[in-house]
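Tokens in:
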């Protein structure tokens, strides 16, 4: 859906993110003072909150770009709903409720008991979260891999960044189910490297991730097919809203689990990742309103390559530990290279237009 390009300043887009950052870091410092009673403890919690925020932002560059790609085709009403309700779900649902639900299911205790456990026995809470890492990585990795492959296995895709790869993927996209077959082969490969119950858990979790992706796609397809009998608001993006929420959840898995490497305090994690989530929201709005994806033709490609890399890393993390900084830097590097390629392409196009005007071509 086309809309006038915004002239809002960079500060205008990130104003609320800056405010949330200040409030969040102050809350982190207060929590550190309350829990330790020392200046050193207060500064430590303050620093951890800041690091977690940076970690979340670095892991979510590609999330913001993919969100913007989907949002640009939604009606303003549904855009607003995602950027208000959606961000609340992302911050409170994935950064607070999701870790609690994992402990509730894994430990077989009630939600209130899980909160008490997080507050009184953080080391036990962190152990349960870490034990749940394998099924989470398999589920999230599978969902994200399908997101990335579906973008490239598309016969209508005519703009290619890494042509030697993308042209072949576009050509073979006419083979029905090729993305699913590829993912299932990878699932079998990685499960063969695991043993016993871990292998079974990996396969089952990966299948649930695949089914979730297909279910979300099915809902979107049904909404599109029924558009003639739906209101304009409903046509504008209910399916896309659901898709983006599940996508955000998959992106959040890695950050939430990785945060426990820095602290075992659920509330510190919620503050740090919540700050980062606000920046993702601000980046998403800026990308949509300034039509950044239109001006930088390969930026979207870089984001989806980063998604594929992240999905593979989540699979590999079921076998080996990979520091979250590597995950974040890997995605940011790919997006940076795609931005550079876009700028170079724009420069070449401007030169070509100049040469045409001068009659040199």
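Residues out:
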């Amino acid at each position: 859906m086309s809309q006038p390009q915004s002239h809002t300043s960079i500060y205008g887009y990130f104003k609320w993110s800056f405010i949330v950052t200040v409030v969040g870091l102050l809350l982190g410092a207060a929590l550190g003072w309350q829990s330790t009673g020392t200046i050193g403890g207060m500064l430590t919690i303050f620093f951890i909150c800041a690091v977690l925020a940076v970690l979340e932002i670095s892991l979510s560059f590609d999330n913001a770009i993919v969100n913007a790609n989907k949002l640009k085709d939604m009606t303003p009403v549904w855009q607003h709903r995602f950027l208000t309700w959606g961000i609340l779900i992302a911050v409170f649902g994935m950064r607070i409720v999701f870790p609690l639900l994992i402990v509730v299911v894994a430990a077989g205790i009630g939600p209130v008991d899980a909160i008490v456990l997080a507050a009184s026995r953080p080391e036990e809470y962190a152990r349960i979260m870490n034990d749940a890492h394998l099924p989470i990585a398999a589920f999230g990795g599978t969902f994200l891999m399908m997101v990335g492959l579906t973008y490239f296995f598309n016969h209508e895709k005519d703009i290619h960044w890494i042509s030697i790869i993308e042209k072949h993927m576009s050509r073979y996209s006419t083979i029905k189910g090729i993305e699913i077959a590829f993912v299932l082969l990878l699932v079998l490969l990685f499960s063969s490297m695991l043993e016993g119950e871990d292998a079974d858990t990996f396969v089952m979790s990966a299948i649930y991730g695949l089914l979730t992706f297909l279910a979300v796609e099915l809902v979107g397809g049904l909404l599109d097919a029924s558009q003639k009998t739906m209101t304009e608001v409903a046509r504008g993006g209910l399916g896309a809203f659901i898709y983006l929420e599940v996508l955000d959840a998959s992106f959040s898995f890695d950050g939430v689990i990785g945060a426990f490497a820095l602290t075992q305090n659920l509330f510190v994690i919620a503050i740090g990742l919540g700050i980062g989530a606000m920046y993702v929201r601000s980046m998403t709005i800026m990308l949509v309103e300034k039509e950044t994806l239109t001006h930088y033709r390969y930026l979207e490609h870089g984001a989806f390559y980063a998604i594929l890399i992240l999905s593979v890393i989540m699979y590999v993390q079921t076998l080996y530990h990979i520091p979250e900084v590597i995950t974040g830097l890997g995605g940011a590097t790919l997006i940076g290279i795609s931005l550079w390629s876009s700028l170079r392409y724009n420069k070449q196009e401007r030169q070509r237009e100049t040469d045409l005007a001068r009659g040199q071509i």
